[in-house]
Specification:
single chain; mainly alpha; about 45% helix
């Protein structure tokens, strides 16, 4: 049995890491150029590709700002607020579909 290395989507398609979008949030993160963080960061971005294509907010709980002028608490608050709103919409949709 041959084991192929690389990155693969949920449907088994090989993914070229260079084609995975780099959200603006990543550009201001300390971990962007950290070799130890390359794989977890890439997997997080791969997991959210479809959402990013739709213009949704990129969420990353591992974010560490690379500039002291960036308010990390506000960034996290904005992510939490966005996630809560998305969750509220999802639950409302599920409830509506159950009534059918």
């Amino acid at each position: 049995m041959t084991i192929k290395s690389g990155y693969y989507s949920d449907d088994g398609e090989e993914v070229d890491p260079l084609t995975v979008p780099m959200p603006a949030l990543c550009n201001s993160c300390l971990k962007k150029n950290d070799a130890k963080e390359e794989t977890p960061c890439l997997l997080n971005r791969m997991d959210q590709i479809e959402e990013m294509k739709k213009g949704e907010m990129f969420l990353c709980i591992a974010y560490e700002p690379n500039d002291s002028s960036i308010n990390k608490k506000k960034v996290y608050h904005d992510m939490e607020k966005y996630w809560a709103e998305q969750n509220r919409k999802y639950l409302a949709k599920q409830k509506k579909e159950k009534k059918k």
